Structure formats: structure tokens, C-alpha cells
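Teaching soon. Got one?

===
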Amino acid sequence: MAESETPECSDESDKPLLPKWFAMTWPSTWYWWVPWGIGAFLVGYGTTFSLLGMIQDYHGGGVQSSFLIAIAIGTLLMGCASPNPFGQMMKGFTFGADPESWSSDPKPPMEHDDWHLYRGYWDEEKEEWVRNELSPYEQDFPNINISQDDDEWVVYCEDGGLGSKKFSTEKEASDYMIQEIKNGERRDVQELLFGDHPRHNRYRALFNATPPQFTTRFLWHSFTVMFILGAYLATPTNMRVEMSYIPIFLMIVGAISTIISHFSYQSSVEAWDTVTSIIKYVDGGHGELVGQIRPQIAIPQPILHLDGCTHPTWTFDDLVAWYWSYRCTETWEERTYNHETKSWETTTHTETRTIRDGGHSQDFMIHDGTGGMAVKLTTFDRVEMGEPIWSRKRRGDKTCGPYATARHGGSLSHLWSLRALRQGEPVYIMARIKSRHHDEIPKGNVGFNATRVHHTLEAVGEDAPRRRAKVCKGNEFSVLSAKNSSVSRLGPWILLIVGAMGLFFF
């Protein structure tokens, strides 16, 4: 999404993004208009013939019930094709369909050289440049580089057009760098925070918005329930005796759907009820983090040769977690003799199986522009890596494992796929924030920034009530797009349960 397309929502007095009580929505894409159109046709068909039957005083209850069922199927399709208004609103805020892209300034630096992983300072006692292990945890700006030009030291500061400055001694160059880093700390946090971060001011109106109590989907699905109940009541009494199981079946469907809806909605509730922390000001306890994946310099970065293949296109050196699999699909035909037709018949069978797979995870750093914090990825049970970042149907060079063999003498098709968390990608984390072990805290001169504490903290995968620890590729908005009111989400199913209970009295 281009910067010019980003909604202006910094003023809390802006017009509400969604109505309070009811929001009418229509299918947002052409392929959703297809089921909506089919549903509208069924509603029109059922309504027309039901009215004609009433006018002609037609008493064929079974036929009339079929018309009501047609209307119920139509309203069900129309409800499914009607989007959630909160999800529609979120499309104006998320940064594109690809969660790996960043769109709004300030953007995170994507090159490793800009992550100041190895930035140092001059140690007068040792009389040498010393790497400051705290530098990767500092804010991104200003971006400072230093180089030697004969007997002088050149410091380039990419901030406010300061350009480069030359110094005759290492200490003067080092002091200048430290001072500019301190000056960067005085920036407003909104200037440092990534533009796609949920706590950025551009999203203030979003988090002040609430889903409407009633939605178009609720309306159509409520009609579905009423017409299903009406179809049962329109059935002749003698036939209802044979269909006495229908009310119980409807109650079971309503109860199961209510439970599924409740638990599937849990992630959205957790994300909405938990305030996303800004790493510069993060506190201990359970919370959310959103930022860019970066490596921890104290942990060696592994190289993945997928399935042992050393071909460059099968080699990755910028992953912090991955899962790869080699799956094989076999297709074969079987001929059987049909004694009834006295002929041979050919049946095609397919079988897909996983031949080999492998995975790995290691700790990394999450950075949101204001600062970085360690993430103990190995402590998380829920790690969502998104869609595959790589797939192949043919093997590369110098492989170590054999191909799958045909079990049934058929033809084989092969598929290798890789899901991963990659350095530079956005990531969403729900975790417990706690102090790191003193042996793991990076060493450095804390006096450079007396307010820095986030380098002493880490995110670990520990659950809490209504807080399930997880790591997900992407941003928080993909989770929030499912947000809906309790009435719209559970109303039709509760109406189905109550209505089915009422059928016992008829």
C-alpha cells in the first residue's frame, strides 16, 4: 500500500470508522458475488413459489417446506458471501497482501550492514576499537559508519544531512559517534517506530473502532435459522413424527458451532485485549511484540542445505527457523473384474506420503525501530511460519538422500517445500517478557544510554490466562481482521439452539 493510500487517522476526533449498531456489507470480490447471486436466486425462487402456494391455497406441506429450505440455503450462501465489516476496514490499514513487505515510513532497514550488529567504540585502556554488544539493541537511527583515511578517522552520520566529519584521533571519533547515538534517543518515538507497527499514530483510529453489534452476515444467517425452523413446522404432523430427531440434530449443530466459534475467535480476542509493547519502553509480564527479525550476534547463524543438497538454490543462510519436507505422490491404476457387468473396470488411485523432513529453530532478536529484544524461540510451542517461501519438483545437485520408490508400480511426482522465519521479515509475538539470565546479558557500556533496559529482557513462550504464547510471521492486523461482535458471531447459533428447543412444544 502506497503512502498516499494510507488512511489519515491521527486525529481521535475523526468520524467513527464503523457504525455502532449495524453495517451493511456487500461481496468485495467477483468470486464472492457468484455464491451471493446463487443465494439471491434461491431466495427469490423459494419466496415466489411459497407466495403462489399461499394464494392458491395449496396444501401440499412437503412441497412448501422444500421452498422454505431453498430460501434457507439462499440466505446461508448470501451470509457467507457478505464480508465482516471490521475485516473490510482492516484492508485500509494492513500493508498489502504479502506479509513480508513493509510499506509505510519509517521502514526498517533490510540490509544487514544497516543493523549496526558490530558497531564499536574506542577503548582507551586497551587502546583499540572494541565491539559494543549493546549496539544491536539500540534504536535504528542515526545510521553511523566509521572508516580510516590515512591518519584521520571519518565518521559518516546518516541523520539530518550531517554527512561526514573527520577527526584526528580515535577517541574524538568515538565520542562523536556516542553523542550522536544519544541525540537519536531524544527523538520522538513515532519517528523511530516502524510505520507498519500497530502502535504507530496512523493506526490510532483503528484501535478506537469497535465492530458493529449487527452485521449483514448475522442478518442473513438469522433468516437461515428462521426458515429452517419454518420448514420443519410446515411439514405435515404425521411426517414430523418420523422426523423427531431433527430438533435434537439442530441443537447439536448449534452447540458444536458455538464452541468452535468461541475457540477459533480466541486469537483475535487475545490480540485485541493485549496492548502491543514498544520495545524501548517494554515492561515485564505477558505482552505483544511486533517488529523485524534480526540475528543475535552471540549465536552462530546456521546454513541450511535443504535435504543435504549443496546447490545454491537449495542453500539458505538467513533463516532463524525452518521446516522442510519432501513429499511424494504416487498414481497408479488397478483393473478389477465386475461380475455383475461381466467386464473389466479400471480404477485410478493416488497416495501422498512424506518421505523425509527436517526442522530447526534458534533464538533471535526482534527490533521495532526503537530498540531490540531477545526472543527465546526454542521455548515456543506455537510457531506459525506462513506459506512456503520455496518449493521445487526436481532435485538439485549433490544430494544425500534417495528418491522415494513406487510402492504400487505407479508414476511418482515429487515436491520439496520450505517454510521459514527469515531475517528481515515482520513477526508478531505473544509471550512472557522476563529478565534474561545474567550470563546471557550482552556486555557493553550502559552509560551510553542510561534508560536502556530492554537488552536485559527476553520473550519466552509461557502461557497465561487468555494469553497463549505464539510466534507468527506477519503482523498483528491479520489476526485482528477477524474481530466481530459477540452478537454477530454467536447470535445465529444461539437462535438455532433456542428455536430447536421450541420445536418440542409443537
